[in-house]
Write a structure and sequence with these properties.
Blueprint: H1 11-15, H2 35-56, H3 68-83, E1 89-90, E2 99-100, H4 105-115, H5 124-151, H6 162-169
Antiparallel strand pairs: 1-2
Helix pairs in contact: 2-5, 2-6, 3-5, 4-5, 5-6
Length: 171
């Protein structure tokens, strides 16, 4: 067959469109992740992360947060809400000179969206605190769903339930 001729379609593939021929000796094992299955991975990882977090850090229910980064993010969000504009410099930080933070506005926007449903029933501070607490477990849940989806072609469905557990327990 010359270089410019088109190869004929394999008749077996025409009869069975679901037939996947292995390339380079690799057989793809699993079926794709269905929406319900992905939601189950998300929910499992989110609930596990929330349960482990509340057990490890019970003070978060009284207004505490887990790390200084979360405190600084909430300080910036308070400043943004009071100024009605994006804040690029956190005043009174870095020995009074201020710290320039320009890369985390996407996370700030996600936190504000998460806080929006809590705002009508609580104060702005409590809504931001609830959003900050929910952000970690929701992120772990999204990670678990994404890893299960990425591993689907290479894994058997019965082993994919390890993904939420490993996502929660990973350092």
């Amino acid at each position: 067959m010359s270089e410019h001729q088109v190869r004929p379609i394999d008749p077996a593939a025409q009869r069975r469109p679901d037939l996947v021929r292995p390339r380079f000796g690799v057989q793809l094992a699993g079926a794709p992740v269905a929406l319900g299955e992905g939601l189950a991975y998300f929910a499992t990882a989110t609930l596990l992360a929330a349960a482990i977090g509340l057990r490890a850090f019970p003070a978060v229910l009284q207004g505490s947060l887990v790390n200084p980064d979360t405190y600084m993010r909430l300080v910036r969000l308070r400043e943004m809400l009071s100024q009605h504009a994006l804040v690029y410099v956190v005043p009174r930080d870095s020995a009074g000179a201020g710290t320039v933070l320009h890369w985390s506005h996407l996370i700030d926007a996600i936190l504000l969206l998460l806080a929006a449903p809590f705002a009508p029933v609580s104060s702005g501070e409590a809504a931001l605190h609830a959003a900050a607490l929910a952000f970690g477990p929701l992120s772990i849940g999204l990670l678990a769903a994404a890893v299960a989806w990425a591993a689907a072609p290479f894994s058997d469905r019965r082993w994919r339930w390890l993904v939420p557990l490993l996502a929660v327990l990973s350092p």
